[in-house]
């Protein structure tokens, strides 16, 4: 059950436009390998807001998770660009290279870049 629940969890859920916080989350199900997912939304005042909502949603399907870190995304759909940067004060810096690969799979026709600089 947890394996199928895990396979239904989208790898990427981000807002369609703007600059906003994001978290990289490792999701686990009983007896299933873990997978990393990206969540980023402008409604979140803090990275913890994103993680808490994600954890609640996953728990309903019997899945657990841990936050691997955070940062910011600048999503410019009119230019087909996403830039990954910054860090989370509470969770630390996410591995932006992992985040970038997840985003490239979801947005194959975008230019996706990352940098450790910036907040």
Explain what the structure shows.
- This protein has 119 residues and is an alpha/beta fold.
- The chain has a 6-stranded mixed sheet with strand order 1-3-2-4-5-6.
- The longest helix is centred in the middle third of the chain and has 13 residues.
- The radius of gyration is 14 Å and the shape is globular.
How big is the Rg? 14 Å
Strand residue content: 35-45%
Q: Looking at the structure, what is the overall shape?
A: globular
Class by helix and strand content?
Answer: alpha/beta
Through-space gap between termini: 39 Å
Strand order of the largest sheet: 1-3-2-4-5-6
What string, H for helix and E for strand, traces the elements in order? HEEEHEEHE
The average pLDDT score comes to 94
Oligomer: single chain
What is the helix tally? Answer: 3
Contiguous uncertain segments of 5+ residues:
none
The helical percent reads 25-40%
Q: How are the elements arranged and paired?
A:
Elements: H1 2-7, E1 12-14, E2 18-29, E3 32-41, H2 47-59, E4 64-76, E5 81-85, H3 96-106, E6 111-114
Briefly characterize the structure.
By secondary structure, this protein is an alpha/beta fold. About 25% of the residues lie in helices and about 40% in strands.
Distinctive features:
single chain; alpha/beta; 119 residues; 25% helix; globular
């Amino acid at each position: 059950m947890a394996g199928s629940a895990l396979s239904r969890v989208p790898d990427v859920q981000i807002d369609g436009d703007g600059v906003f916080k994001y978290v990289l989350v490792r999701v686990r199900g009983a007896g299933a390998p873990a997978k990393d997912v990206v969540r980023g939304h402008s409604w979140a005042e803090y990275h913890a807001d994103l993680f808490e909502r994600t954890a609640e949603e996953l728990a309903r399907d019997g899945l657990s998770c841990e936050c691997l870190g955070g940062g910011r995304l600048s999503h410019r759909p009119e230019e087909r660009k996403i830039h990954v940067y910054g860090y989370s004060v509470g969770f630390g810096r996410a591995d932006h290279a992992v985040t970038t690969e997840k985003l490239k799979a979801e947005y194959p026709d975008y230019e996706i870049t990352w940098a450790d600089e910036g907040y």
